[in-house]
Fold this sequence. Notes:
The protein is of the alpha+beta class. It folds into two domains: 9-166, Four Helix Bundle (Hemerythrin (Met), subunit A) (Up-down Bundle); 193-431, Alpha-Beta Complex (paralog of FGE (formylglycine-generating enzyme)), CATH 3.90.1580. Helices cover 31% and strands 12% of the residues. The strands form four sheets. The chain has a four-stranded mixed sheet. Strand 5 and strand 6 (278-283) form a beta hairpin. The termini are far apart.
Amino acid sequence: MPSTEAKTSExxxxxxxxxxxxxxxxxxxxSLNLAKPLSDEDQVVQAMDDASPTKWHLAHTTxxxxxxxxxxxxxxxxxxxxxxxYCFNSYYEAKGNRHPRASRGLLTRPSAxxxxxxxAYVDAALMRLMAHEAARSGRxxxxxxxxxxxxxxxxxxxxxxxxxxxxxxxxRPAYQQQPxxxxxxxxxETTPFITYEGGIHSVGHDGNGFxxxxxxxxxxxxxHPFRLAERCVxxxxxxxxxxxxAYRDPLVWxxxxxxxxxxxxxxxxxxxxxxxxxxxxxxxxxLLPIELDAPVSHVSYFEADAFARFAGKRLxxxxxxxxxxxxxxxxxxxxxxxxxxxxxxxxxxxxxxxxMFGDVWEWTASAYLPYHGYRPPAGAVxxxxxxxxxSQHVLRGASCVTPxxxxxxxxxxxxxxxxxxQFMGLRLAxxx
Length: 432
């Protein structure tokens, strides 16, 4: 895998003490670095409606800076191409019409090379903007910070979308060779649970440092006493669910989940397939035997909920998860580790839960809804999160391809309950 520590020497030399500029151009370099193992042909194709081509991710994150930062805040800025706004706007209605999401793989023009030129053009303009002291504070700085975090989201999407594409290739290509292997621990036969007292607890972001608008405002919630699994559900655990015949048993599924299982012919998690009588899973390291003690990944909310019912447990609420994460270091197997897939837990029977940040995003039982007092920001930026607060569920933590530093214990990821192409897993909970 290309180094995730790519630096921009021009920025270091010009302004070594400007952390915001450094982070901005490091993140811009990382996106290009992640695309390096791919051919231009790889970067054009779209595997499914939920995914986007690599070329589109590289262009969209560039358009974001052009649309929200440079047009309004760099005097005399000329857009690279007026046509690109239609091609690379994602869902910002306030910015006008856009190319249909499901047809992004048909955008053979502009070429991948022209998209790289587009990035270089916008990066040069961002350098001119960040050379001004006024750009490093106030409204411009806040938009640049949002742009950095937005690009980090797309870096994760870029890799998960590459996996969805490579999984459809008959040659089963590997994005990264020489995979890092988990240390198989086998672990205890029964996963330890940690007990948490109930009470009134504050949840949500406190306003210090960056957060997305959907993480606040901070507010109090009532949490009843509960117990949370010390580690994520593993492939070994999930294999027992499969072998029990659960994918043929409607009684462990929500109604919509059972309908989805039948309509899509699911018999196992995403990217699992039988090879010579054994289960394998397509990964960014290629098609490999499943690692029994690694967290199960690429399961939908429907599958996570069904497994919890099968186990006689439930999924935690997002507030239980956040409360349990207090005191847990916000670190783990994320993009910087280079593994690019979930790894087995290295601790068993600890006093704090393991794997809360990294490996897999963890489904919660909570619907994605606004917190009490939430108000979306004004203008097009307000479309970032608020308008999606319907029919989705919250996931917490981070995954093995989440860029380092791009998570918080208050971070609210969200997906529809039938989606599973992301690195999604689960952790069990129960009432105490």
